[in-house]
Amino acid sequence: MKQLLILSGKGGTGKTTVAGAFIKLLDAKAYADCDVDAPNLHLIMNEMDEPARKDYFGLPKAEIDQSSCIGCDLCRQNCRFDAIKFSGSYQIDYYACEGCGVCQIVCPVNATTLKPAVAGELMLYSNSDRVFSTAQLKMGSGTSGMLVSEVKKQMINADIDADVAIIDGSPGIGCPVIASISGVDMVLIVSEPSISGISDMKRVIKTAESFQTKVAVCINKYDTNHENTKKIEEFCKENKITFTGKIPFDPDAVKAINNGMTVIDTDCKAGASVRDVFDNIMELLK
Ligand code: SF4
Ligand code: SF4
Fold first, then answer.
1. How far is the CA of 61 from the centre of ligand 2 (A)?
2. Residue 98, ligand 1, Cβ within 6 A
3. Does domain 61-116 sit in CATH 3.30.390.30?
4. Most buried of 157, 162, 169, 202 (most Cβ within 10 A)?
5. Which numbered atom of ligand 1 lies nearest the CA of 93?
């Protein structure tokens, strides 16, 4: 099963719009939403019933048994994350604790222990021939890269007979993006013709290339800035990056998304352009 990952470098470029349309055009049997901080692919790909839900455990968190604590202060002094506070008794700051275990090692009376902590929820929509893997990270949890790996693993382990899997990635270039690139066959970057869009596209290209992953680019809302669109096309040409097409800004596409549809579920010019990008990508994936 080949894996196509759709990235953008930043939020709001239309990455999920393109991913949703690709899933429909391909009639994809396997797909995933790796934007675990703010998943939204399920809002437009809602044809399956309730998902199977599973808690995701990230890094453990420290706990202090107040009845054993002798108040030596060693844990607070040795916590590099400043996660232990004293205010009448020693307390762990749940959001600051990184689960490193130092407090457990230094405590002379074994009053601190590391406990598994729920950091998010994995969801798996599936039926006999289709699987959709997604997750939601708990607010304040910092292990999004590990959760992204779990989302992909869940999709692959479902062992569905699919030629191509479509993965909607996270915005940015941080840990979750790196986790989502690992093992994919191609990255499609949905860029937008703005200064920040160009800068973010270059950064995400660099990240993908460091994994020796094939990269292709398309531009969404290309007609909102023709000059910057030209710059993106020239950049791709100069750097031998496959350019797969331009999608216009289209109020009909916005309406379709707001009604829980993909852009190819309605007759609109953005949908026609997405089809062209899709055809080009499928050729490249052969
Ligand atoms: S586990 Fe590490 S980060 Fe958490 S409270 Fe203990 S020393 Fe601090
Ligand atoms: S190291 Fe152990 S005994 Fe000392 S203050 Fe921390 S929890 Fe209490």
1. 15
2. yes
3. no
4. 169
5. 5
Q: How many CA atoms lie within 13 A of 209 on its CB side?
A: 12
132 close to 125: Cβ distance less than 8 angstroms: yes
Cβ–ligand 1 distance for 189 under 6 Å, the answer no
Q: Where are the domains of the chain?
A: 2-57+121-285, 61-116
Closest CA to 167 of 145, 143, 186: 186
Q: Which CATH class is domain 2-57+121-285?
A: alpha beta
Closest CA to ligand 2's atom 2? 107
Asked whether the predicted pLDDT for residue 10 surpasses 80, the reply is: no
Is the CB of residue 248 below 6 angstroms from any atom belonging to ligand 1? no
100 lines ligand 1 (CB under 6 A): yes
If you take atom 2 of ligand 1, which residue's CA is the nearest one?
A: 100
Q: Name the percent of the chain lying above pLDDT 70.
A: 99
Residues in the chain: 286
- The one-letter amino acid code at 13 reads T
Q: Could you tell me which residues come within 8 angstroms of residue 91 by beta carbon, excluding any fewer than 6 positions away? A: 64, 84, 85
What pTM did the predictor assign? Answer: 0.87
Please count the other Cβ atoms lying within 10 Å of the Cβ belonging to residue 214: 16
Would the CB of 101 count as within 6 Å of ligand 1? yes
Ligand 1 centroid, distance to 86 Cα (angstroms): 14
Note the pLDDT tens digit of each residue in 242-252.
999 999 999 98
